[in-house]
Amino acid sequence: xxxxxxxxxxxxxxWNYAMDQMTMQGVVGIAPGYPEEDVSGLKAALEGRxxxxxxxxxxxxxxxxxxxxxxxxxxxxxxxxxxxCLRRDIYVFCEKPVGISMEQLQQVRVAQEQSKAWVTAxxxxxxxxxxxxxxxxxxxxxxxxxxxxxxxxxxGRRHVSYTTMETFGGIxxxxxxxxxxxxHDLAGVDFIDVQALTNNEYNQDHGDLEMTSLCLxxxxxxxxxxxxxxxxxPQGAPTHDDDRVRVVGTKGIVEYKNGVVQKIDQEGxxxxxxxxxxxxxxxxxxxxxxxxxxxxxxxxLDMTAIAIRAxxxxxxxx
Amino acid sequence: xxxxxxxxxxxxxxWNYAMDQMTMQGVVGIAPGYPEEDVSGLKAALEGRxxxxxxxxxxxxxxxxxxxxxxxxxxxxxxxxxxxCLRRDIYVFCEKPVGISMEQLQQVRVAQEQSKAWVTAxxxxxxxxxxxxxxxxxxxxxxxxxxxxxxxxxxGRRHVSYTTMETFGGIxxxxxxxxxxxxHDLAGVDFIDVQALTNNEYNQDHGDLEMTSLCLxxxxxxxxxxxxxxxxxPQGAPTHDDDRVRVVGTKGIVEYKNGVVQKIDQEGxxxxxxxxxxxxxxxxxxxxxxxxxxxxxxxxLDMTAIAIRAxxxxxxxx
Lengths: 318, 318
Fold this sequence. Notes:
Chain A is α/β, with parallel strands linked by helices. Chain A has nine helices and 13 strands.
């Protein structure tokens, strides 16, 4: 694979997804997404891997240097920076959600239409071993008819930007969006409509932050799906999050929970061997080279859009 | 406990819930709910337990003999028979759903208001060992904020009455209603609103029968809940149905799945010892004697009502 001039703006999210490729290819520089942002952890991680790092105070200086931008700063800022990158034909590996409002998302969409480059949302879970195993197993269960997805996170003490809707965007665009992306990818059909509910009580002084959410999706071809997302995973739980998905088909059911992928069909219950994980950022670079792999630009925007619709539907009912 | 004159109308559903008490107390008679109904299996089961059985061709003959009626005939007929019983002050242990339309349910409600007796829906799962274990464990997880319930059934070949909405009523009033009852009992708050989706494709020539359903509930105090119900449990699965519930509280999460009740809190993950199961019909008889135990008359009607609302909401979107 060809080498790219990679830069990183912000250190708020999942820059780690790009770490293996940055270790191999190096970085042209890193910069905070806003003046107060601390990027020292990212710098140290890169240097710990033997990558020499130039830190720019203003990310605009990076715009002349990059071909590929890893954008993961405060959630309300990612869309605007993505637009700036796209206007300069810089490919963007963007923290999810790509935007926290329909207006932001529309700006990204327009910029992408006018750009030679495009944006890939950090839907990295789709390339984890368990998800790839589920995805392959779903081929053997006939027509997918019903899906249940779950994200459950430990709350801990979140950055102050999580506490206002204007800087965070809500649990659905931030967390449930992963399960929305799984459901879409596994069902192989698009969303038609969504109804959602959220609640932000008992959030331990986290302001607007919603602790619970539920989404109900009508999809094409009569497929239906639900997604549950919450911040109530107890501190004593063995893992930070509890990702689950259940895919119900006409000839069997595939499920992931607790590190195990299971299929039930007329033969009975089978625990499936795990496939290898893939590198979501490497797949993005291969897509730039023309391969049809990884998260597509349309998925990156469309999953964000349905998540924002769900969030707004829930808010309208409060 | 005092002895009651117990009769059975119909043999379509869960008469087995009453079997232990009928074995001890005997039955005054059994009768089909409609002329063609075959009650020979019920008769044989009772006689196999040493209970002598008189079969009446017309259930109206039983109405003069019974104090307590076990009503479980074709699903569209249970409400009308329940009304007839209530008008004669006969207590009714009624198959769920107690009615398959709001009109039917309203007739039962009016009859109950004017009767010395009342109706108990066959929400027997609530007294199974696993549910009692979950119910007790929920006391230790703070405020309940989010619940996810599931019913998943093997389809097999269903009685012809399942194939029209007019004689069956739909998967939500018939199946999801159990999980609706669990959610209500475990949350300790009432339902405010429901949104639902169903689909009846790929139902192997079962007419109207819905294969999938999802319900989204807004409850009091900001509690939210989802219920998933389907007929896609594969024939090769180890059990007929796959009941699950997940209760998310401010201090922990309690779950039931695959025969195991699990609690996660700051101490970590604990598998809970199972409580003893209870006899839902015995509890009903004890309620007649004045004890505050078992399924209440209000629950019996209210859970049916919210299930019918959900079914109608889903149908309105088709």
